[in-house]
Automatic annotation (TrEMBL):
The name this protein goes by in its record: Beta-glucosidase
Key words, A-Z: Carbohydrate metabolism, Cellulose degradation, Glycosidase, Hydrolase, Polysaccharide degradation
A Pfam family it matches: Glyco_hydro_1
Reaction equation(s) it catalyzes: Hydrolysis of terminal, non-reducing beta-D-glucosyl residues with release of beta-D-glucose
EC numbers: 3.2.1.21
Enzyme's top EC category: hydrolase
Residues forming the catalytic site: E376 (nucleophile)
Family note: Belongs to the glycosyl hydrolase 1 family.
Alphabetized SUPFAM superfamilies for the sequence: (Trans)glycosidases
InterPro entries: GH, GH_1_N_CS, Glyco_hydro_1, Glyco_hydro_1_AS, Glyco_hydro_1_beta-glucosidase
Length: 475
């Protein structure tokens, strides 16, 4: 990408942050009363994760959080998005909070504020308490009710100091990778259950918004983070355009429909009628799911390219979401996914910054009046230290600069984008890929857990301090 003739600049109050999630970094899975989540169970099941990797220790953030906060402060970041471990705070998914669990997050928040870093709390990043999964998990209505209770406990404990709140991270992954294709915890492969899970995630989100508002100051802002897809057709053939609409409903409308508009797309209900009759949607559910938000989080990595298939697609799909013989796209077995052309990251995902601008502008129209945050964006590369122990990652710098330039372009085009959270602060447990994929701006030696900022971290820190995007070679 050519360098712009003038520097790219951002608003002075723009949030420059990094993001993480509890199971990927915390470790300490048996300390302080914490009980297993579905990811503890899944990762300890043979064959579920690369190399049998798990998050028992992860990168030991639970014991090293002060070091990690100091790293962010040294880089010049002013925001940090982290998730709370539900089973650390409410081990059975029911009943009163365990104060020692909440105390960890109280200490983390206090340390962030002391370093002038704004905390952003994500309540759920895929780590459902195992006891709730044993009772049926997200396909059951009860889980949505329990989530609202948990949200109120955390909101009551941290709401006086944390102003930025996110209910769910990427509910699409929870519903369709967890209960459809089975490549994420809990590893179930039931298309009807995945749609029930999606609905109860919508319901749980809305109930959690109301629960948070009941215990927090009105100044606090509440959002949800969606990994909405930019879906493009292989051709302009009407059949391919119909395939785009079908996947758009399943990737996007299934969540933003209820959350933003109080209704599912009629075309989604028709397309999935052979899978479920949607009788689990009760009176009042969609009104509850549409609880008013202050902001919307968008997670973006790569676009999707689809076409119609002549018949049913059997076996794994090239949709970038892991290999499984079971589809995460219920009612869309006649849609083909294609690899988009261009450079790719270690995840095999095509690098296409224009998709981020397209996504932002879509949701500027879809959710007028809501502040937008890029709550995840980043890339995995095969990072290695050099002979002096430095980690130079020019590919990631180029990736970040190109995507942040698209954020700035969207702001210039009128989008109300208030912040950007790089995924991720540091290398960590990358779900079913184990420790083999490095997304971090900070390199972690998994043998010693030593942290080393990569050149991309220094580049990003400079952008955060100046509000301008340095040249790619400026790290």
């Amino acid at each position: 990408m050519p360098e712009p003739l003038t520097p790219v600049t951002f608003p002075t109050d723009f949030l420059w942050g990094c993001a993480t999630s509890a199971y990927q970094i915390e470790g300490a899975v048996r300390e302080g009363g914490r009980t297993p989540s579905i990811w503890d169970t899944f990762s300890h099941t043979p064959g579920r994760t690369a190399g049998g990797d798990h998050g028992d220790i992860a990168v030991d953030h639970y014991h090293r959080y002060r070091e990690d906060v100091a790293l962010m402060a040294d880089l010049g970041l002013n925001a940090y998005r982290f998730s709370v471990s539900w089973s650390r705070v409410q081990p059975t998914g029911r009943g009163p909070a365990v104060q020692v669990g909440l105390d960890f997050y109280r200490r983390l928040v206090d340390d962030l504020l002391e370093h002038n870093i704004q905390p952003a709390v994500t309540l759920y990043h895929w780590d459902l308490p195992q006891e709730l999964e044993d009772a049926g998990g997200w396909p059951e209505r009860e889980t949505a009710l329990r989530f609202a209770e948990y949200a109120q406990l955390v909101g009551d404990a941290l709401g006086d100091r944390v102003e930025h709140w996110i209910t769910l991270n990427e509910p699409w992954c929870s519903a369709f990778l967890g209960y459809g294709s089975g490549v994420h915890a809990p590893g179930r492969t039931d298309p009807a259950a995945s749609l029930r899970a999606a609905h109860h995630l919508n319901l749980g989100h809305g109930l959690a918004v109301s629960a948070l508002r009941s215990v927090m100051p009105t100044r606090n802002q509440i959002a949800v983070s969606l990994n909405s897809s930019v879906v493009r057709p292989l051709s302009q053939d009407p059949a391919d355009l119909a395939a785009v609409r079908r996947i758009d409903d399943l990737a996007n409308g299934v969540f933003h429909g209820p959350m933003l508009h109080g209704a599912y797309p009629a075309s989604l209900l028709a397309d999935t009628a052979s899978v479920t009759d949607w009788s689990f949607v009760r009176d009042g559910d969609l009104a509850a799911a549409k609880a008013p938000l202050n902001a919307l989080g968008l997670n973006y990595y790569t676009p999707a390219l689809v076409s119609a298939a002549p018949g049913k697609v059997a076996g794994p799909r090239a949709d970038g979401h892991g290999a499984s013989a079971h589809s995460p796209w219920p009612g869309a077995d006649d849609v083909l996914f294609h690899q988009t052309p261009g450079e790719r990251t270690e995840m095999g995902w095509t690098i296409d910054p224009s998709g981020l601008h397209e996504l932002i502008m879509r949701y500027s129209r879809e959710a007028p009046g809501l502040r937008l945050y890029i709550t995840e964006n980043g890339a995995a590369y095969d990072d290695k230290p050099d002979a002096e122990g430095r980690v130079h990652d020019p590919e990631r710098i180029a990736y970040l600069r190109a995507h942040l330039a698209e954020v700035e372009r969207a702001i210039a085009d009128g989008a109300d984008v208030r912040g950007y959270y790089l995924w991720s602060l540091m290398d960590n447990f990358e779900w079913a890929y184990g420790y083999g994929k490095r997304f971090g701006a900070v390199y972690v030696d998994y043998a010693t857990l030593e942290r080393t900022p990569k050149s991309s971290a220094h580049w990003y820190g400079r952008a955060a301090r100046t509000g301008e995007l340095p040249p790619v070679d400026a790290a």
